[in-house]
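[Meeting: bench + compute handoff]

Bench side (C.D.) handed over the final construct sequence. Compute side (W.E.) agreed to return the predicted structure before the next meeting so the bench team could plan truncations. Sequence as handed over:
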Amino acid sequence: MSNPSNSKAERPTMPAVLKGWKRKCPQCGSGPLLSGYLTVNDTCTVCSEELHHHRADDGPAYLTILLVGHLMAPLLHMIFVRYRPEPLVLFTIFAVGCVGLS
């Protein structure tokens, strides 16, 4: 059994999730949650909540690949079928487009 005096009070899940979607601290909602695209801050700069135990893992990268892939694949197919550009030109344009969307 856990000792209630040692554990923090449970916070409501939905407000914490919404603050996370806004990339804000789940405790105060003001401080930044992320210091980079895939890097979680160690502590909140506003309320000093420890954030080091939260992990971004592959979620942001997977979501980016999913969205960019679903946007670029049909566009790539349409451009290739309609205009038949040279492969190097097609690759260059779509590589720049993928990097730009990421």
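W.E. noted at the follow-up: The chain has three helices and no strands. C.D. will use this when planning the next construct.
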